[in-house]
Amino acid sequence: MFSASKCSGVFRAARLHHFRSHSVSRASPNLTFVPACLPPDPVEVEELQHFVSNSKRLFVMTGAGISTESGIPDYRSEGVGLYARTDRRPIQHAEFVRSATARQRYWARNFVGWPQFSSHQPNKAHLVLRDWEKLGKLHWLVTQNVDALHTKAGSQRMTELHGCTHRVFCLACGDRILRSELQEHFEALNPTWKAEALGVAPDGDVFLTDEQVRSFQVPACQKCGGILKPDVTFFGDTVSQEKVSFVHQRLAESDSMLVAGSSMQVYSGYRFALAAREKKLPIAVLNIGPTRLDHFASLKLNSRCGELLPLIVCT
Questions:
Q1: Which of 311, 309, 315, 313 is closest to 141 using CA atoms?
Q2: Which residues contact residue 294 at a Cβ distance below 8 angstroms, ignoring those fewer than 6 apart?
Q3: CA distance 150 to 138
Q4: Which residues are annotated as a binding site for NAD(+)?
Q5: Residue ranges for the binding site?
Q6: How is the co-factor bound, per the entry (predicted)?
Q7: Are the C-beta atoms of 168 and 151 separated by less than 8 Å?
Q8: pTM above 0.85, yes or no
Q9: Catalytic residue numbers?
Q10: pLDDT at position 22
């Protein structure tokens, strides 16, 4: 199945083998980074059931809120998101590209956080969406997340709108490697370097002091010596027009839209909700807290994705 976010050839095969070597976790959800909310209301369950039952070609967009139950923090959740817990902000694209110091800081923090971040497993919500795809209910899935949890769950009809942290590429020659391979390069360059994280942030990041990262060595591209960057769209960068057009095409083939775990504050995802509204598609939103879609969505549900989605019967 073609996706605008898929890689080709050997790299693609290696990536899938790497993900599928992990077992899918069916343990109780980790609610550390999930905002407080009431259990699903039976009326809301019935309303979402009706929405899904009436959908024949469902377009689903997910955000960070679907992965918080896997133990990954998000940015905006009230009380538990990064913005609520700290004044730290994610790195900007321009800063990463122009500053060797910024890249050193980013990669040092990512190096420390990677073992835990890469071990996170899909939760019930990811598995439900995978099953909907298998049943032919879900036409296309677009995730704003970069955590690879949908891929680990087995979703295939999917576009990773903002890329994936499990891939790394060279800004100069475009060569791609797995993030796990880069971890080995980091370890070889920094055999005695150690740092204890002072906190956890989204997208594989942790908190370190400037003093901790000062001696951290960052490898260059092994093919051309260029700058290595995670294959993700940083804040301040834009999603490629090719990928945007591809997603618009999948939306045009759909008859309804479900947003799960996203406040849709970022325009790169919000634009597709605007397009769905213009096409007069029914839109359901499942998210704890307000979203940019609340004033025009057909249905708004304030529940945990991993708690509500498994209650929906899909045939």
A1: 309
A2: 285, 300
A3: 13
A4: 63-83, 144-147, 261-263, 287-289, 305
A5: 63-83, 144-147, 170, 173, 221, 224, 261-263, 287-289, 305
A6: Binds 1 zinc ion per subunit.
A7: no
A8: yes
A9: 162
A10: 39
